[in-house]
Specification:
GO terms for molecular function: DNA binding; sigma factor activity. This is RNA polymerase sigma-70 factor, ECF subfamily. Keywords: DNA-binding, Sigma factor, Transcription, Transcription regulation. Belongs to the sigma-70 factor family. ECF subfamily. Helices cover about 80% and strands about 0% of the residues. The protein has about 190 residues and is mainly alpha-helical. The chain folds into two domains: about 1-90, Rna Polymerase Sigma Factor, Chain: A, CATH 1.10.1740; about 115-190, Orthogonal Bundle (Arc Repressor Mutant, subunit A), CATH 1.10.10. Helix 2 (about 15-25) packs across helix 3 and helix 7 crosses helix 9 (about 165-190). The longest helix has 28 residues, at about 80-105.
Protein backbone atom coordinates (compact mmCIF):
# COMPACT_ATOMS: atom_id res chain seq x y z
CA UNK A 1 0.00 0.00 0.00
CA UNK A 2 2.72 2.49 0.99
CA UNK A 3 4.82 1.74 -2.08
CA UNK A 4 1.78 2.08 -4.31
CA UNK A 5 0.98 5.46 -2.74
CA UNK A 6 4.62 6.58 -2.93
CA UNK A 7 5.17 5.64 -6.57
CA UNK A 8 1.83 7.08 -7.61
CA UNK A 9 2.51 10.45 -5.98
CA UNK A 10 5.94 10.75 -7.55
CA UNK A 11 4.89 10.12 -11.19
CA UNK A 12 4.06 13.80 -11.64
CA UNK A 13 5.07 16.33 -9.03
CA UNK A 14 2.17 17.71 -6.96
CA UNK A 15 3.35 21.25 -7.51
CA UNK A 16 3.29 20.71 -11.26
CA UNK A 17 -0.34 19.62 -10.98
CA UNK A 18 -1.09 22.70 -8.87
CA UNK A 19 0.49 24.92 -11.54
CA UNK A 20 -1.48 23.12 -14.26
CA UNK A 21 -4.73 23.63 -12.37
CA UNK A 22 -4.02 27.31 -11.71
CA UNK A 23 -3.36 27.83 -15.44
CA UNK A 24 -6.19 25.75 -16.87
CA UNK A 25 -8.83 25.34 -14.15
CA UNK A 26 -9.13 21.72 -15.32
CA UNK A 27 -10.98 19.70 -12.66
CA UNK A 28 -9.29 16.49 -13.85
CA UNK A 29 -6.09 17.86 -12.33
CA UNK A 30 -7.87 18.25 -8.98
CA UNK A 31 -9.02 14.66 -9.46
CA UNK A 32 -5.40 13.51 -9.73
CA UNK A 33 -4.50 15.38 -6.54
CA UNK A 34 -7.57 13.85 -4.90
CA UNK A 35 -6.48 10.33 -5.88
CA UNK A 36 -3.04 10.89 -4.43
CA UNK A 37 -4.04 12.42 -1.15
CA UNK A 38 -7.48 11.03 -0.29
CA UNK A 39 -6.11 8.59 2.27
CA UNK A 40 -4.07 11.26 4.05
CA UNK A 41 -7.00 13.70 4.17
CA UNK A 42 -9.40 11.01 5.37
CA UNK A 43 -7.03 9.90 8.15
CA UNK A 44 -6.58 13.48 9.35
CA UNK A 45 -10.35 13.94 9.36
CA UNK A 46 -10.81 10.67 11.23
CA UNK A 47 -8.25 11.71 13.84
CA UNK A 48 -10.11 14.96 14.54
CA UNK A 49 -13.73 13.99 13.97
CA UNK A 50 -13.54 10.41 15.30
CA UNK A 51 -16.41 9.29 13.08
CA UNK A 52 -16.02 7.40 9.80
CA UNK A 53 -19.02 8.88 7.97
CA UNK A 54 -18.31 12.44 9.08
CA UNK A 55 -14.69 11.94 8.03
CA UNK A 56 -15.73 10.75 4.57
CA UNK A 57 -17.98 13.80 4.17
CA UNK A 58 -15.24 16.11 5.44
CA UNK A 59 -12.74 14.57 2.99
CA UNK A 60 -15.04 15.40 0.09
CA UNK A 61 -15.61 18.91 1.45
CA UNK A 62 -11.85 19.53 1.63
CA UNK A 63 -11.42 18.56 -2.00
CA UNK A 64 -14.36 20.77 -2.98
CA UNK A 65 -12.57 23.63 -1.21
CA UNK A 66 -9.47 22.97 -3.32
CA UNK A 67 -11.28 24.13 -6.45
CA UNK A 68 -11.41 27.68 -5.08
CA UNK A 69 -8.51 27.66 -2.60
CA UNK A 70 -5.83 26.67 -5.11
CA UNK A 71 -6.81 29.60 -7.32
CA UNK A 72 -6.56 32.07 -4.41
CA UNK A 73 -3.53 30.91 -2.44
CA UNK A 74 0.12 30.63 -3.35
CA UNK A 75 1.18 27.12 -2.38
CA UNK A 76 4.83 26.19 -2.04
CA UNK A 77 4.43 22.73 -0.48
CA UNK A 78 1.13 21.16 -1.51
CA UNK A 79 1.08 18.24 0.90
CA UNK A 80 1.85 20.42 3.92
CA UNK A 81 -0.66 23.04 2.80
CA UNK A 82 -3.33 20.37 2.25
CA UNK A 83 -2.64 18.98 5.71
CA UNK A 84 -3.21 22.46 7.22
CA UNK A 85 -6.33 23.02 5.13
CA UNK A 86 -7.74 19.68 6.26
CA UNK A 87 -6.93 20.26 9.92
CA UNK A 88 -8.50 23.73 9.82
CA UNK A 89 -11.61 22.37 8.11
CA UNK A 90 -12.01 19.71 10.81
CA UNK A 91 -11.46 22.24 13.59
CA UNK A 92 -14.06 24.47 11.99
CA UNK A 93 -16.54 21.58 11.91
CA UNK A 94 -15.82 20.82 15.56
CA UNK A 95 -16.18 24.48 16.56
CA UNK A 96 -19.42 24.81 14.64
CA UNK A 97 -20.73 21.77 16.49
CA UNK A 98 -19.57 23.22 19.80
CA UNK A 99 -21.19 26.56 18.96
CA UNK A 100 -24.45 24.74 18.30
CA UNK A 101 -24.06 22.98 21.66
CA UNK A 102 -23.48 26.34 23.38
CA UNK A 103 -26.69 27.69 21.89
CA UNK A 104 -28.61 24.67 23.17
CA UNK A 105 -26.86 24.87 26.57
CA UNK A 106 -28.06 28.45 26.92
CA UNK A 107 -31.55 27.01 27.29
CA UNK A 108 -32.73 26.05 30.79
CA UNK A 109 -31.32 22.69 31.92
CA UNK A 110 -34.68 21.07 32.53
CA UNK A 111 -35.72 20.47 28.96
CA UNK A 112 -38.93 18.69 29.97
CA UNK A 113 -40.30 21.89 31.53
CA UNK A 114 -39.21 24.01 28.59
CA UNK A 115 -42.06 25.08 26.33
CA UNK A 116 -41.63 23.51 22.92
CA UNK A 117 -41.67 26.92 21.28
CA UNK A 118 -38.43 28.01 23.02
CA UNK A 119 -36.52 24.88 22.01
CA UNK A 120 -37.88 25.14 18.50
CA UNK A 121 -36.97 28.83 18.38
CA UNK A 122 -33.37 28.13 19.44
CA UNK A 123 -33.04 25.53 16.68
CA UNK A 124 -34.59 27.93 14.17
CA UNK A 125 -32.17 30.67 15.28
CA UNK A 126 -29.25 28.31 14.77
CA UNK A 127 -30.54 27.30 11.35
CA UNK A 128 -30.95 30.97 10.42
CA UNK A 129 -27.32 31.57 11.38
CA UNK A 130 -26.12 28.60 9.31
CA UNK A 131 -28.24 29.65 6.33
CA UNK A 132 -27.09 33.24 6.71
CA UNK A 133 -23.45 32.16 6.51
CA UNK A 134 -24.15 30.23 3.33
CA UNK A 135 -25.77 33.28 1.74
CA UNK A 136 -22.84 35.61 2.43
CA UNK A 137 -20.44 36.39 -0.40
CA UNK A 138 -17.53 33.91 -0.31
CA UNK A 139 -14.93 36.43 0.94
CA UNK A 140 -17.17 37.61 3.79
CA UNK A 141 -18.09 34.05 4.78
CA UNK A 142 -14.45 32.95 4.77
CA UNK A 143 -13.33 35.89 6.91
CA UNK A 144 -16.27 35.51 9.33
CA UNK A 145 -15.61 31.78 9.75
CA UNK A 146 -11.87 32.29 10.22
CA UNK A 147 -12.35 35.13 12.70
CA UNK A 148 -15.25 33.83 14.78
CA UNK A 149 -15.21 30.05 14.39
CA UNK A 150 -11.47 29.44 14.03
CA UNK A 151 -10.53 32.44 16.19
CA UNK A 152 -7.85 33.61 13.78
CA UNK A 153 -6.34 37.09 14.10
CA UNK A 154 -6.66 39.70 11.39
CA UNK A 155 -3.04 39.04 10.40
CA UNK A 156 -3.59 35.28 10.17
CA UNK A 157 -6.68 35.83 8.03
CA UNK A 158 -4.65 38.18 5.84
CA UNK A 159 -2.07 35.42 5.29
CA UNK A 160 -4.64 32.67 4.70
CA UNK A 161 -6.84 34.61 2.28
CA UNK A 162 -4.24 36.77 0.58
CA UNK A 163 -6.39 39.86 1.23
CA UNK A 164 -4.87 42.97 2.72
CA UNK A 165 -5.70 44.02 6.29
CA UNK A 166 -8.26 46.65 5.25
CA UNK A 167 -10.08 44.11 3.07
CA UNK A 168 -10.15 41.55 5.91
CA UNK A 169 -11.63 44.09 8.36
CA UNK A 170 -14.12 45.22 5.74
CA UNK A 171 -15.20 41.65 4.91
CA UNK A 172 -15.73 40.89 8.61
CA UNK A 173 -17.65 44.12 9.25
CA UNK A 174 -19.81 43.75 6.13
CA UNK A 175 -20.27 40.03 6.76
CA UNK A 176 -21.54 40.69 10.29
CA UNK A 177 -23.91 43.35 9.00
CA UNK A 178 -25.20 41.13 6.17
CA UNK A 179 -25.58 38.19 8.54
CA UNK A 180 -27.56 40.33 11.00
CA UNK A 181 -29.78 41.62 8.16
CA UNK A 182 -30.34 38.07 6.90
CA UNK A 183 -31.27 36.80 10.36
CA UNK A 184 -33.57 39.76 11.08
CA UNK A 185 -35.27 39.23 7.73
CA UNK A 186 -35.53 35.52 8.46
CA UNK A 187 -37.15 36.23 11.85
CA UNK A 188 -39.57 38.71 10.31
CA UNK A 189 -40.91 35.98 8.02
CA UNK A 190 -41.97 33.82 10.97
Amino acid sequence: MFLKFFSKSRSTDDMELVRQYRRSGDLDVIGKLFERHTEMVYLICLRYLEDEEESKDATMQVFEQLIVALKRHEVSNFKSWLHSLTKNHCLQLLRTGRLKNKVSQALPREQHTLPQDDATQAELDWQALEHGLVHLPAEQRTCIELFYLQQKSYREIEEITGCDLKQVKSYIQNGRRNLRIYIEKNHAQR
